[in-house]
Write a sequence for this structure.
């Protein structure tokens, strides 16, 4: 396993990590989640990602049960939660979502209880909150850090301008700024990390923990001949994901990319995951899996990484046609 420092912090995360979005509770039970997390940990993965909204809190409860049963040394792994959407679903009341001090603090306490840990290594603001002053968000996260309930706080799917504002507020008030951002990043979704965040990396030293390196499974090739029953795009409630991901243009690019994977003797999945790690600003790519074999295959991405030469990366850019226009500076 390769380990990368999270931005300018001293925290080291495994280049591949393991997340629970969609899969936990919806697709895997306690027995399978225990086995998958065990495979990940034994392979050197030390970061396990979660959020209050995943399966309305049940994902955190499932991960908490696994962590309790494993009895791993707490210092050997990193666990996260995220706050914004709440876990009450459509029945949530006004203060049960968002980034008010009330919801952030209460959500943190609930996450600690569900995950059965004394502190969160990483705590993300899952989305920006247009209705809460930035100073309130920064002060609240700083308080949780001072109390020892959170070690590092971060953002997820914030704009570069919002991240800069948070850092400016923290600097003005001598408080802890966000240390990490969690955006989507894959061969179809590149603009934010490769262009918008360049000043963030250069000036603020943010770490990046990316989600959906396989574009919700599209980059595995399993959707090339249709949507398999039981797959992520077939799940009830995820129609928005299907509409976003399942297009003829994207399927055509994936079929052409498979030729490159075949030449490398690799699967489309391992190639696509390895590609995200060629970006030196990426701290870790979060994997999701519903089968042992799926996770084992994805872990091979680190074997493919050294084979991705500049010439091969340029060929992939030509095939995908998704490379953003970079600034001249």
């Amino acid at each position: 396993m390769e380990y990368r420092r999270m931005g300018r912090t001293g925290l080291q995360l495994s280049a591949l990590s393991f997340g629970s979005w969609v899969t936990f509770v919806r697709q895997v039970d306690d027995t399978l989640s225990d086995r998958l997390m065990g495979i990940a940990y034994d392979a050197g993965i030390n970061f396990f990602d979660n959020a209050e909204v995943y399966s309305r809190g049940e994902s955190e409860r499932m991960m908490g049960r696994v962590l309790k049963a494993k009895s791993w040394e707490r210092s050997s792994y990193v666990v996260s939660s995220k706050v914004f959407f709440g876990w009450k679903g459509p029945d949530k009341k006004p203060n049960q979502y968002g980034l008010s001090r009330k919801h952030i603090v209460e959500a943190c306490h609930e996450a600690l209880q569900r995950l059965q840990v004394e502190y969160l290594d990483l705590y993300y603001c899952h989305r920006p909150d247009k209705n809460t002053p930035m100073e309130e968000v920064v002060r609240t996260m700083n308080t949780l850090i001072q109390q020892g309930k959170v070690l590092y706080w971060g953002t997820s799917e914030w704009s570069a301008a919002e991240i800069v504002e948070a850092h400016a507020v923290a600097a003005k008030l001598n408080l802890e700024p966000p240390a990490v951002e969690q955006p989507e990043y894959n061969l179809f979704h590149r603009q934010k990390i490769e262009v918008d965040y360049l000043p963030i990396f250069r000036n603020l030293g943010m770490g990046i923990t990316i989600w959906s390196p396989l574009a919700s499974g599209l980059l595995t090739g399993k959707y090339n001949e249709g949507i398999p029953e039981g797959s992520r795009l077939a799940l009830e409630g995820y129609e928005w994901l299907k509409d976003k991901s399942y297009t003829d243009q994207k399927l055509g690019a994936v079929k052409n990319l498979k030729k490159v994977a075949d030449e490398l003797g690799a699967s489309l999945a391992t190639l696509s995951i390895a590609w995200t790690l060629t970006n030196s600003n990426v701290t870790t790519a979060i994997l999701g899996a519903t089968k042992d074999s799926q996770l084992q295959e994805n872990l091979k991405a680190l074997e493919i990484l050294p084979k991705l030469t500049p010439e091969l990366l340029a060929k992939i850019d030509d095939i995908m046609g998704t490379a953003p226009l970079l600034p001249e500076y």
User: Anything to note?
Assistant: The chain has a mean pLDDT of 92. The two ends are 34 Å apart (CA to CA). DSSP finds 13 helices and ten strands in the chain.
